[in-house]
Design goal:
Blueprint (H helix, E strand, L loop, with lengths): L2 E4 L2 E4 L3 H12 L4 E4 L15 E2 L8 H20 L10 E5 L2 H16 L5 E3 L1 H7 L9 E5 L3 E2 L2 H12 L2 E3 L4 E6 L5 E6 L8 E4 L2 E4 L5 H7 L7 E10 L9 E4 L1 H7 L6 E8 L5 E7 L10 H14 L8 E11 L6 E4 L6 E5 L5 H16 L19 H4 L1
Parallel strand pairs: 1-12, 2-3, 2-13, 3-9, 5-15, 13-20
Antiparallel strand pairs: 4-8, 5-7, 6-7, 10-11, 11-12, 14-17, 14-18, 15-16, 16-17, 19-20
């Protein structure tokens, strides 16, 4: 026997983006059900660092979405604050050479024109921000708008605050379509050992993260989301010696790269709990969860180049996650014209925590027939030709 539920919107995925879609959808007056094959924050969100960044984004649609999201995160911080470990600590991007500093300043100039606060810091000003940086660094750029949350906590709190019904440990097995091809809901496997479920709704949101392409295929559409693996090193708890998110300028190039090979660039940040988080690696190896000693060694070496004191600090563990990567490095956000009622909110790569609030807000505006605050054209989910179209 199949159980039937009804609502206004089904959100598929209980990560950070799904939780934000539920929150803003509910606050717009919609009855929301969230469904996930695992627990809340059980996928990419639970393996994230919780970065809310503008510093790594060049002027364009992603930066516009980051600025919108940052404003929304600041509003939510007044509501949740310490409960989600929100820290408006700022970011420092450092250059390893005078030529690199010139390029970094040029990059920051474009960001300033788009509304980013970016302050060039050299000499004593740089070391006043981060006293334990390696000596001899020519300078960097300070981004006070960068912030951080604890992602699993944030997803849980936003999902709970939404008031949505959250159905975990249920895999979506089918997207239900009407005779005219429009969405009418989803079918799930039901709880373990229980009856299958049909959730009927006129709108379905694909917030399935790295598995967003697989879910899109259930609805009969092509969305080329691929996993991009990344490792993070975690140190023993320390007194606060890294005050901001600090990373080398080549991190920005790694984020924008199309290479499938292993890339590493040092990213170091302290946390409210004491451990220091060290990233960032990127490689396209499918969903291979094999531990990579070369990747972790590269992380450690890069971090100690930035902060020499880390050479004497013990790393207690390493973990990995998979970023949902789309070929043009922009997420898919908004309605899918190929299947009326299907909306996408996935493919944010490593920026999903930061971009989640803006994404959820924009989706809620679309669902309630309001003009979205941003032009969604660059995020259209049908912008990628199907494989047979490129053959």
């Amino acid at each position: 026997m199949t159980e039937r539920l009804t609502c206004d919107v089904v959100v598929v995925g209980a990560g950070m983006v799904g939780a934000a879609c539920a929150l803003y959808g509910s606050r717009a007056g919609l009855d929301v059900i969230v469904v996930d094959r695992g627990p809340v924050a059980g996928g990419t969100t639970g393996a994230g660092e919780g970065n809310l960044l503008v510093s790594d984004k060049e002027p364009g649609p992603e930066l516009d979405l980051a600025l919108l999201s940052g404003r929304l995160w600041a509003q939510l911080a007044e509501e949740f604050g310490e409960a989600v470990e929100y820290e408006p600590k700022g970011g420092v991007v450092v250059a390893s050479s005078p030529g690199g500093l010139t390029a970094l300043e040029r990059f920051a100039d474009g960001q300033r024109a788009a509304g980013v606060v970016a302050e060039t810091v050299t000499g004593g000003d740089l070391y006043a921000l981060e006293p334990h940086l390696a000596p001899g660094i020519p300078g960097g750029v300070y981004y006070p708008q960068d912030a951080q949350v604890m992602p699993a906590l944030a997803a849980a709190h936003l999902a709970r605050a939404s008031g949505a019904r959250v159905l975990t440990n249920r895999a979506v097995t089918e997207v239900l379509l009407s005779a005219d091809g429009s969405v009418r809901g989803v079918r799930t496997s039901g709880r373990s050992g229980g009856a299958a479920e049909e959730i009927h709704a006129p709108a379905v949101i694909n917030a399935a993260g790295t598995w967003g392409g697989e879910f899109a295929a259930l609805a009969g559409v092509h969305l080329p989301v691929l996993p991009r693996r990344g490792f993070v090193l975690v140190t023993e708890p320390l007194s606060r010696r890294v005050r901001h998110k600090v990373y080398a300028a080549d991190y920005v190039a790694d984020v924008a790269s199309d290479s499938a090979a292993l890339q590493t660039s040092p990213v170091v940040e302290g946390t409210a709990a004491g451990p220091i988080l060290i990233g960032a690696t990127r490689e396209r190896v499918g969903f291979d969860r094999t531990f990579s000693l070369p990747a972790v060694r590269a992380l450690a070496a890069g971090a100690t180049r930035l902060f020499p004191f880390l050479a004497d600090v013990r790393a207690t563990r390493a973990y990995l996650g998979f970023r949902p990567y789309l070929p043009d490095h922009l997420p898919a956000v908004g309605p899918d014209p190929r299947v009326p009622g299907l909306h996408h909110a996935c493919g944010h790569e490593g920026a999903g925590i930061g971009l989640s609030t803006g994404t959820g807000h924009l989706i809620a505006q679309i669902l309630t027939d309001k003009r979205p605050d941003l032009d969604l054209t660059p995020f259209r989910p049908d912008r990628f030709p199907a494989p047979e179209e490129t053959a």
